[in-house]
Amino acid sequence: MPEQGHLEQRGHVGRADVPKAEPAASAVRPADVPKAEPPAAAVRRTGLLVTLLLGGLTATPPLAMDMYLPSLPQVTDSLHAPAATVQLTLTACLLGMALGQLVVGPMSDRWGRRRPLLAGLLAYVVATALCAVAPTVEFLVGFRLVQGLAGAAGIVIARAVVRDLYDGVAMARFFSTLMLIGGVAPIVAPLMGGQILRVTDWRGVFVVLTVIGALLAGLVWTRLPETLPAAERHTGGVVEALHSMRRLLADLPFAGYMLTGGFAFAALFAYISASPFVIQEIYGASPQTFSLLFGVNSVGLVVVGQINGKVLVGRVSLERVLGVGLLTVTAAATALLLMTTGVFGEVGLFPVAAGLFVLMSAMGVALPNAQSLALLRTKHSAGSASALLGTSSFLIGAIASPLVGMAGEGTAVPMAVVQLAAALVALLCFMTMCRPWNTRATAEGAEN
Q: Which terminal Cβ of the chain has fewer Cβ within 10 Å, N or C?
């Protein structure tokens, strides 16, 4: 597709909610020049395909992490390695995904979205295939690190592509749609992993992940056009990328939205890390009950995310919706802390599960709106901005995750403390750095 034609399609598809003035030159175009905008039906088909493709790229982290979880005991036995060492395969992948975004994001601002994305997916496929044949746990840890570094391309560039295609209300709605896919992936991935282990061993899990990565690479190659025009790319190298990130971090509202989303994500990470132990060991639920509750909470997040995108966005300001979401997360975390410390006496599983459901559901408005508001602050460094958003969330979440087990196995208080502390910090960053009451300040971007 020609570059100019693509740009006109981009304005038609992604920014339909923003009125665009007809260029003056259009009145003198030759009659034999075909219109650059494709038919509406073709636009809708392309939009659906791009949505599914970007959703698949967004689902890469939960697939790479959660599909592998049921096979951890098999890895321990197969490679004759201690359980603590095998756990490093998860840490290595998470660390790679966090750090890889800092590299791939600026690369996509300089060379466009397609080339870094295709290179990352190719490296992801190779690294995942090597995981399937790893002879020792040390090799597996190394391959998982490379897998995470390469898989980061899908995460960061998917967000950058959304920023290229959409703006304002349309972007917030699209992020809510991506949350639907991202919310389903953690539910489906462990189930897929368990079913794969019924017919093969842990190496088969990585074979399936390799096939999924290859399919995504093929779809990107054939179906995802370049979304960053050459005129809008950065020409500098590492130094300019660092300057771009410094400019973004110096923009107080952007940094505020980044930290707000990061600490909200930390509350989510605390739930993911602690809930299997809290639900099953402390409250005596069966693994089946835990899986059901985990699925219900994920459905709550997805449903609220869809309400955010389909109902709230465009009718209520993003800042107000984000503020209500953060207040709801804080209230749920406070209730959980009161319940786990015995203020209400002995409570059973149902009240705790209800508190976790409210907290998780509120993430459906907190996380996508924090990302949307942050990306609205930048026009020409969406890759670098996306990298900062992703890396900060992963790193803050990774730091918060081990804190939930600091007080031992007999209490759920640490989970509630971490969740409440993260929610309060997120709310503080939002109020003091983002200045949500100053609509003019929040609407103006960091870059002109």
A: C
